[in-house]
Design brief:
Length: 97
């Protein structure tokens, strides 16, 4: 899973997965270890559903809860508004745009 996420960030590929019972498509921006100690993905969700009901929007996903992760051939152009390089919610970063 880690390498799939890293490759998607490097290639600016969309990711598709299920999370908390919702199917999601996201633009991955930052992948690392959250300050709570969990491998986490900060991404801009562009399709699918969410418990909060707001899509598109920024989300922070704990990777251990991601199911059926797929890197999609479709790419995105770059960072979204409000993107924060060196995300302060991460204590260690594996990959970022």
């Amino acid at each position: 899973m880690k390498q799939t996420i890293i490759d998607a960030i490097k290639g600016r590929n969309l990711l598709e997965f299920s999370y908390d019972g919702h199917q999601r498509v996201v633009e991955p921006h930052t992948f690392g270890v959250s300050t709570k100690g969990n491998d986490s993905l900060s991404a801009y969700q562009v399709e699918g559903t969410s418990d909060k009901g707001v899509v598109p929007d920024w989300k922070l996903f704990t990777t251990s809860k991601i199911v059926e992760l797929k890197k999609i051939d479709q790419t995105f152009s770059g960072t979204r508004h409000s993107y924060r390089k060196s995300d302060s919610r991460m204590s260690k970063i594996y990959a970022e745009l």
